[in-house]
Amino acid sequence: MAELIRGTTAGPAVPAVLTSRAKSVWVFKAALRQLLFNGLPILAVLAVWELIAATGMIHAALFPSLQQIFSTMVSLTQQGILLQDVLGSLSRLLVSVIIGIALGTSIGLFMGTSRLVERALSPLLSFGLAVPGIALIPLAILWFGLTEKTIIAILALEVTLVVMLNTWGAVKTVEQRFINAARTMGADGLQLFLRVLLPGSLPGLITGYRLGFSRAWRILVAGEMLAGVANGLGYRIYEARQLLASDNVYAGIIVIGVFGLILERVFLRSLEAMPVARW
């Protein structure tokens, strides 16, 4: 739990004050560095993969060559199937993340500022985080059936819990003397939140959003396999498994990994590292 609160941020130190244009340039360079550092190990793994496939150490039906896998990806793209699956998965993810961030941030703020709310909700939060989201999918199917609502409900719940935890921890890190000083000068309610709590807890909030997004992305694939939706990356992999099409399975796994890498490690970590010089 402590790890979820703290998070991890890799990258160079950020200058304290940046102009708007300089900030954009810095974010672009940070994203480029992340892409380079994360891309090289993947290229090495792909090279080893192709070597094993070429030697025939593993049967081609179970371990197809990269050429066959990428040919399958090109074919799925030309047919429009891959684009439809990607858009379907991302749309479910986006809706769930928006709902989870809104609920998790609101509840976490109440937990961080009210000792009564903190005592009432912290046991429930700990219990919810201990239960894997995948374990709740059968229950969600009973409630919502084999529909989009099942996946969105599970993902939104998981994002809410992670964001709650990090928001709660981030608000608790704001020094009480700053809050007392703001109240002495007449700040209260929304003004106290915008002037003191938000700037002080923003790094922790962004970390919570990144971790919530990552957790939802992993559960999304399993949800699509079990909920019986008509499209999505998880659905496509499950269908390919039934047809014994290993190249389709590997193609889906690669697409999931690439999108997860770009969204979580390149985009979200670069956003997390942005300076909060506005405040």
Percent strand equals: under 5%
Low-confidence stretches: 1-17, 275-279
Largest sheet: none
Order of helices and strands: HHHHHHHHHHH
Shape: globular
Mean pLDDT: 78
State the helical fraction. Answer: over 70%
Sheet/helix structural class = mainly alpha
Number of extended strands: 0
Tell me the span between the first and last alpha carbons.
29 Å
Give the SSE layout:
Blueprint: H1 2-6, H2 20-55, H3 66-78, H4 81-113, H5 115-130, H6 137-144, H7 148-172, H8 176-184, H9 190-227, H10 233-242, H11 246-272
Overall description:
With 279 residues, the chain is mostly helical. Helix content is 79%, strand content 0%. It is built from 11 helices and no strands. α3 (66-78) crosses α11 (246-272), α6 (137-144) packs across α7 and α7 (148-172) packs antiparallel against α9. The radius of gyration is 22 Å and the shape is globular. Residues 1-17 and 275-279 have low confidence and may be disordered.
Essential attributes:
single chain, 279 residues, mainly alpha, 79% helix, 0% strand, disordered N terminus
Task: Give a quick rundown of the structure.
The protein has 279 residues and is an all-alpha fold. It has 11 helices and no strands.
